[in-house]
Amino acid sequence: MGFRSEDRTLAQGPSEVTPDATPEVQQVTPAQAAVGSELTVGITGKNFSPGVYVSFSDPSVHVVSTQRTSPNQLEAKLAVSSKATPGKLSLYVSNPASAVAETSFTIASASTPPSEVSPGSNLQPTEPTRESQPSEAGAPEVSKVDPPSVGRGGGTTLKITGKNFAQGAKVVFANPGIQVLDTEFSKTTELKVNLRIAADAPTGTGSLFVVNTDDREAEAQFDVTTATPGKIPTIKSGDTPKQPVSSGGAGTTAASSQTFNVYSLASAIAILQSSGKTKGNLIISGKTLKYQEEGQDVFSIPLSDVQEVQENIVFGVNSGTFHVILKSGKMYNYISSSLRPSDTQKIVSALQTALK
Questions:
Q1: What are phi and psi of 84, to 5 degrees?
Q2: Sign of the CA dihedral 221, 225, 228, 231?
Q3: How far apart are alpha carbons 325 and 306 in whole angstroms?
Q4: Separation between Cα atoms, residue 44 and residue 39, nearest integer Å
């Protein structure tokens, strides 16, 4: 799932790197990870500013935390899903207001030994960082989900039993048709979650994630069926979905959701380049913001986890693009798929309205 990271930085000094400095990646150690593993990778380069963060092109690689040990060195703690597909992907490093630095990373089968240096690096490999233990003390665990399935077009209240649940823990689903209305923390061994399931939600088995406030998470299975829908749970006044806002041709709207067709950009000026942009959908559904590519969630987070939505101003000129900054520090750049600045402005207005 992964939508969050922490940054523990050195004290700022006169020569501190600025947030708009462009980072460079020279070496990643190790440069690959096995399916289902947890590990810490070291990233060597330059121009790493406070608030720097690491992300991946494949959401099956979850960045648990990012630690900046110096302007030239990062440590990123990773958790690779057991369902990750072996192969090449991209590792991104970005400062809060900079372009993105990209390098290759490999997901290998569990039997493949990890490589310690990124391909093409001319630096000597450093001592590999130690992998975290798969079962970390204090990490949440799910032992039971009741009920384990629900029919399309209805709703239910789930009781999730386990241990090490934290106050403020969130529950998210891989299935884009499941909307979380509210989550109630009863005790460290129990959560209650009110759900609404769309009438056209994909059926079958998907993943449910319990995410603590320290970003550690537990995964369990949850099914959506074509069975007779259950009763839709009562929505608290604070959970009432906002009314759709017209997108002016930039997207489509439904009774409780809005979808905007966008290009995802590597940076605010990537639209000027022939590459560096990918088409997808930004979706406001109730109190959740999602970004999907090819029907797969890149992120799905509560609106309360969004820090800022603003248009990008480059050298004093509106670039026609906009950014979404999460409270974790991660930033995503987009532009309307029509490439019309007026449509981008309407998307920004709709997102800002939903955040109020």
A1: -65, 145
A2: positive
A3: 6
A4: 16
Tokens of 194: 């009110």
Q: CB-based burial of residue 333 (10 Å sphere; 0-12 exposed, 13-18 middle, 19+ buried)?
A: buried
Q: How far apart are CA 340 and CA 164, in angstroms?
A: 48
pLDDT of the chain, 356 residues: tens digit per residue: 443 433 433 333 435 888 788 899 999 999 999 998 899 999 999 999 887 878 887 878 888 878 889 999 999 988 888 888 899 988 888 876 667 788 999 999 876 554 444 443 333 333 333 333 333 447 888 999 999 888 887 788 899 999 999 888 888 887 777 888 888 888 889 999 988 888 877 888 888 888 888 778 888 888 888 754 444 444 343 343 333 333 334 444 444 578 888 888 765 444 444 344 678 888 888 888 988 887 788 888 898 888 889 887 766 667 778 888 888 778 888 888 877 888 888 899 888 888 88
What's the token pair of residue 190?
């129990």
CA dihedral 346, 54, 64, 32 (to 10 degrees): 130
Q: Distance between CA 80 and CA 61 in Å, rounded?
A: 5
Strands 53-56 and 87-94: antiparallel
Cβ within 8 Å of residue 63, ≥6 positions away = 2, 5, 53, 54, 55, 56, 76, 77, 78
| Strand arrangement, sheet containing 141-146 | 141-146, 155-163, 190-197, 178-187
Query: Please, are residues 308 and 97 in contact by the beta-carbon 8 Å criterion?
Result: no
Q: Is 224 helix (H, G, I), strand (E, B) or coil?
A: strand
End-to-end CA gap in the chain: 25
Number of H helices, E strands in the chain: 1, 24
The number of C-alpha atoms within 13 Å of 324 and in the hemisphere containing its C-beta is 28
